[in-house]
Amino acid sequence: MTALGCSTAEIALEMRGRFGMRPREAWRHARGWTLQETADRLNSAGGTDAVAADASLVGKWEKWPGPSGRRPTLPVLAALASITGCSIEQLIDLDDRRGMPESDRLVLARAAPQPSVVPDPPRPPSRPEPVGAELIHVTAAESASWAAWAEATNVGDIAIEQLMADARALSQDYLAGDPATVFLQTRKLRDRVFGLLEGRQYPRQTTDLYLAAGYLCTLLAWMSSDLGQLRDADTHGRTAWLCAELAGHHELRAWVLSTRSKTAFWDGRFKEAITHARRGAAYPSSGTVSILLACQEADAWSRLGARSEARAALALATDASEALRGEDEIGGLFSCPEFRRANYGAAVRLRIGDPAGALAEAEEALRTQPAHSYGTTAQMHVSLAFAHLALNSPDGAAEALRPVLNLTPEHRLEPVTSRMRELAAAMARSRCAEAAAAIALQGEIDAWCTDSVPRHLALSPRQGRG
Question: Which residue from 43, 189, 236, 436 has the fewest beta carbons nearer than 10 Å?
């Protein structure tokens, strides 16, 4: 278009129509700048209204008001207009105006002075349309130029393979590591994947990136729930579901719904937890997610007091375990071995009035099965203590609970602290409430729950969110 004498504004307009670009992205490409070059020009512009930016932030300004974007303020728009050589009005469209605060629209309506326009380079003399053999040659060159554009990618197959390997490592690390540290590492990797998705790659690579982003958001959702932040867990879950849909991946869909079921359960939305678990079970999968989904359904039914439904769901979990033939794609947190299934089984049996069965299942799993994670192990010991209490043995409950009470504060996650509080309340109502062992244990539980990571988060000062 430059060779044909077109202006930068005409090129930007053509890019918007042909490639569906947002106005700011179209103007940047029309100038031939990368995201980093744009950020460098903004940072070097100087003056009292200087804007600090990096490539990621420029990309977010371009995508707004899309879900991965960030709203550019009027000073930012003015700075972009100044370096690009256009007016603010040329950098925004109807969607931008709709998303702006009313005060910004009023400022624009008053037609504030615009930055000086950088003149376009002199237009070369127009060339006549090619004819004959030259037309064929020019057309072939146009196809080659487009192919070079289409072939460009910001990520390679090896890089995507490494992203998935890193996601698997984080899923495994969470089972034994410091949750706050793993959370930060997962967030960093998620941001990297999001940044790659804002670029351009082959369609199959885009699908793989959505898959990686989906698992990372699912991991963030699970961790947020464990840290007592259920609203944030729901937000991550919705984003994970979008990624699963865009990737078209059944296994990821099932794990997302398992995570959303878990969040709903701990938020007291038991019927919604059942709905998510059943929806997840409807997707074909080769790994253990079907076992976990059935366990989660049984857990929610037991909370509702529906004993027959809870038993039926436990039977489904056993059937799924016996029918298992494939392997988990990610593993770690995204797996449900026998120890994890038994943990759910013991908790459900307690709620449906079978403490002896819960005691037997918990003791068998602790004796014969490798532990899944410190969180699952802690919940198993809590179930064991519940069973001893129901069988009128406060000393047995205290002994069963000792490994849980020895957990360091950073490992005292919300599901465990919630069950510990339930145990203390049940102990206060039990026949052995006045026993010395029961009284001492209640005091230990209260102190333990106070010094937990969800409690520390709740009491920490609020900071601005990035």
Answer: 436
Is the Cβ–Cβ distance between 227 and 453 less than 8 Å?
A: yes
Q: Does the pLDDT at position 207 exceed 70?
A: yes
Q: Return d(Cα 37, Cα 33) in angstroms, integer.
A: 6
Per-residue pLDDT of 88-129, as tens digits, reads: 889 999 889 888 888 888 888 875 555 555 555 565 566 677
CATH 1.25.40.10 domain position(s) in the chain:
158-457
The pLDDT tens digits for 17-43 are 888 888 999 999 999 899 888 988 888
10 Å CB burial of residue 324 (0-12, 13-18, 19+) is middle
Q: What are phi and psi of 465, to 5 degrees?
A: -95, 135
Q: Residue 334 pairs with which residues in a beta bridge? A: 331
d(CA 262, CA 295): 11
Assigned fold of 158-457: 1.25.40
Residue from 334, 311, 320 nearest 168 by CA:
334
Task: Please state, in angstroms and rounded to a whole number, the distance separating the CA atoms of residues 358 and 348.
Answer: 8
- Dihedrals phi, psi of 42, to nearest 5 degrees: -65, -45
CB-based contacts of 33, cutoff 8 Å, min separation 6:
41
Amino acid at 167: A
